[in-house]
Amino acid sequence: MTERVVIVGGGIAGVSTAGALRAGGFDGDVTIVDPGEFPYDRPPLSKDFLLGVKNGEQIALQPPRWYDDQRVRLVNRTAVTALHPAEGKVELSDGTVLLADRVVLATGGAAARPPIPGIGSERVHVLRTAEDADRLRPALAPGADVLVVGAGLIGAEVASTALRLGCEVTLVDPVAVPLTAALGPDLAAWLHGLHARHGITAVQAGVEAFADRGERIEARLAGESAARSYDAVVLGVGMVPHTGLAERAGLEVDRGIVVDAGQVTSHPHVLAVGDPARTRHDGVLLPRTEHWEAARHDGARAAATLLGAEAPAPTAPWFWTDRHGRHVEAVGHMDAAELTVVRGGFDDPSFAVFGLRDGFVVAAAAVDDSTAVRAARRMIDRRVPADAGKLADPAVNLRGLMRG
């Protein structure tokens, strides 16, 4: 019988697990252990928080009273140092030992730092935590020359924010058009092209080395004979999951904490959710999913497992990004589409791209058109047959198409 649940990590996955447990009627003890001051949302870090538009309190995942109202004990400024699943014990960095019938690992990850010479310079920044953002913000002073390495979601958002702060920005990535698999080649090219259209210098290249030179830092790019000089560098090249705690506890780890469809690890008393969790499906290890909503869904599935309830029905994966004043959403698997259709035009204030296969929508991506993505998601989840011509016609109401 599960009476005590300890959740290790207070990100969206951990807090969602706690909330779903209470919503599902769990009446036992729920404890969240988090090394920070309070659990906060990460997407604003590269945007409003870095800009200084929102403070720490405004990006909190829940207000302080929520933990009291939900009877969730928050143990903050403390790390978990060891798990003993067979004994039902969780050791904390302050020497405290918590008793737990089940443990949920929501340990998140760290910003990736590739083995590039000179990457340890103080002028090389990452952005994964609020502390990272606080350290980076002074470097993004008006007129500063900033190199952003990696043009994926985080890198592109930081580049956009740095530009708004008055920096001269160079964005470098070895991939010609990032996010092609998620958005399709045409929309990905349009989105990446926003950088140049707003005054950012976009370069297709890898970075071979960094070197401090007085008050600046030099970056040597692949294929260039001369180094480029900057005031600061920001890395946006992915994340590394925190799996050390799981490894020390003897859990199965393979580039992530291996879990089943119910988020259960190789030990039945331990679950894992969010960025570090990697699902095995039909004997095959799937890639980890690092998006915000995926972490929230992991929490809901973990809570269902702990409650002995039916897990929520799976939905098509969804993510969003904001840059240069444009809001982009995507759902499904665009790389699985055999046909794409555009609703509207790329010069319109808003437009959408739908991906179809065998007469069904398998993906969609939209710029400043959340309605189109919501409609596509319902069509994907419900397997509603789709007419490409009607999807492409802005005059056709998408609500009618959702009914088939």
What secondary-structure arrangement, pairings included, does this model have?
Layout: E1 4-8, H1 12-23, E2 29-33, H2 48-51, H3 64-69, E3 72-75, E4 80-84, E5 89-92, E6 97-99, E7 102-105, E8 109-111, E9 124-126, H4 130-136, E10 145-149, H5 153-164, E11 168-173, H6 180-183, H7 185-197, E12 201-204, E13 207-213, E14 216-221, E15 228-230, E16 232-235, E17 239-241, H8 244-248, E18 257-259, E19 270-272, E20 277-281, E21 284-285, H9 292-307, E22 318-323, E23 326-332, E24 339-343, E25 351-357, E26 360-367, H10 370-382, H11 388-392, H12 398-402
Parallel strand pairs: 1-2, 1-7, 2-3, 7-19, 9-16, 10-11, 10-16, 11-12, 18-20
Antiparallel strand pairs: 4-5, 5-6, 8-17, 13-14, 14-15, 20-21, 22-23, 23-26, 24-25, 25-26
Helix pairs in contact: 1-9
What does this structure look like?
The protein has three domains: 4-110 and 239-307, 3-Layer(bba) Sandwich (FAD/NAD(P)-binding domain), CATH 3.50.50; 113-235, FAD/NAD(P)-binding domain (3-Layer(bba) Sandwich); 325-402, FAD/NAD-linked reductase, C-terminal dimerisation domain (Enolase-like, domain 1, 2-Layer Sandwich), CATH 3.30.390. The chain has helices spanning 12-23, 48-51, 64-69, 130-136, 153-164, 180-183, 185-197, 244-248, 292-307, 370-382, 388-392, 398-402, and strands at residues 4-8, 29-33, 72-75, 80-84, 89-92, 97-99, 102-105, 109-111, 124-126, 145-149, 168-173, 201-204, 207-213, 216-221, 228-230, 232-235, 239-241, 257-259, 270-272, 277-281, 284-285, 318-323, 326-332, 339-343, 351-357, 360-367. The mean pLDDT is 96. The protein has 404 residues and is an alpha/beta fold. A hairpin with a 2-residue loop joins β13 and β14. α1 runs parallel beside α9 (292-307). The protein starts with a strand and ends with a helix.
